[in-house]
Every structure is written in structure tokens, then in C-alpha cells.
Amino acid sequence: MKNVTDSFVFLGQWPSAGSFGFNTDILATNLINLTVVIGVLIFFGKGVLSDLLDNRKQRILNTIRNSEELRGKAIEQLEKARARLRNVEKEADQFRVNGYSEIEREKMNLINSTYKTLEQLENYKNETIHFEQQRAINQVRQRVFQQALQGALGTLNSCLTNELHLRTINANIGMFGTMKEITD
């Protein structure tokens, strides 16, 4: 501490005329220089420093406010997204249930349609069988009738003589004549 006070004493002892010298006591000169610089900085820089700190404080507060607003908006958007997700999941479940119901309904419609088609095919088959039976019966009747007619004609031709044949024709002509008179 003695060196610091000695340096102030030396300032008073310097000659005022023309000589210039160096103070070789580094600790004393550095301390004085630092004190002067710090004093000037505090005196002139106090306002600037407080303004800088206030500005920094305001920027930090604004950043915090903006962050809070963004956080609030993000939470709101997250809630909206969750609500949309719930709605989409409900719709998907509903589509799934409706889809299964629709599939079951279509399956039943297809089964019913197939049964109806099979029933119609069975009816067509039965109608075709009945038609073919009727046709076969008619063909058999026609053949039996033709054979009976041929047999009757053969019997008539062998038993009929010309005279009997003429009498039969005349009797039939007579019958037709009386029928014509009755209808007129």
C-alpha cells in the first residue's frame, strides 16, 4: 500500500519544466489508469449500460411473451388436431361398422339372389321336362293314331267292296246335305 501512496507523492515532486520521464512503477501506474478508466466508464457509460440492459431485458421479456403465445397457439392447434383425430377415428369406426354391415347386407342379398336364380332355374327345368313329356306324349299319341288309322284304313279297304263304298259315300253326302239345310 505504501507504493500507491508514494506514487501520488511523486506526482507532486515532478519538475514542471521540460523534462519528461517514465514512471517505472507498473503497479502504481496501472492502478491509476484503471481507476481513471473505470471512473470515466461509470460516469459516461452508466446511462448507456442501463439502456443496454433495459433493452436486453425487454427483448428477453418479449421473447418470453412470444414464446408463451406460440406455446399457447401450439397447444390450441394440438387440441384441434387431437379433436380432428378423434372425429376421424369415430368416422373410421363408423365406416368400418357400416362397411361390415354393408358387406353382410350385400352377402345376404347375393345369397337371396342366388337362391332365387336357382329356384327359377329349377322351375325352368321342371317346365322344360313337362314340355318335353307333353311333346313325347303327343308324339306317341300321334303315332298311335296314325297306326290305328292305317290299321282301320287297311281293314276298311280289305272289307269294303266298290258297291259298299259307293253306298257309304252317298249316305255321307246325304247327311251333309241335310246339315246344310238345317244351318241355313
Automatic annotation (TrEMBL):
It is a single-pass membrane protein. The chain crosses the membrane at residues 26-49. It comes from the Eukaryota. InterPro entries: ATP_synth_b/b'su_bac/chlpt. GO terms for biological process: proton motive force-driven ATP synthesis. One of its GO terms (cellular component) is proton-transporting ATP synthase complex. It is found in: Membrane. Residues 64-98 form a coiled coil. GO terms for molecular function: proton transmembrane transporter activity. Pfam families: ATP-synt_B. Keywords: ATP synthesis, CF(0), Coiled coil, Hydrogen ion transport, Ion transport, Membrane, Plastid, Transmembrane, Transmembrane helix, Transport. F(1)F(0) ATP synthase produces ATP from ADP in the presence of a proton or sodium gradient. F-type ATPases consist of two structural domains, F(1) containing the extramembraneous catalytic core and F(0) containing the membrane proton channel, linked together by a central stalk and a peripheral stalk. During catalysis, ATP synthesis in the catalytic domain of F(1) is coupled via a rotary mechanism of the central stalk subunits to proton translocation. Belongs to the ATPase B chain family. This is ATP synthase CF0 subunit I.
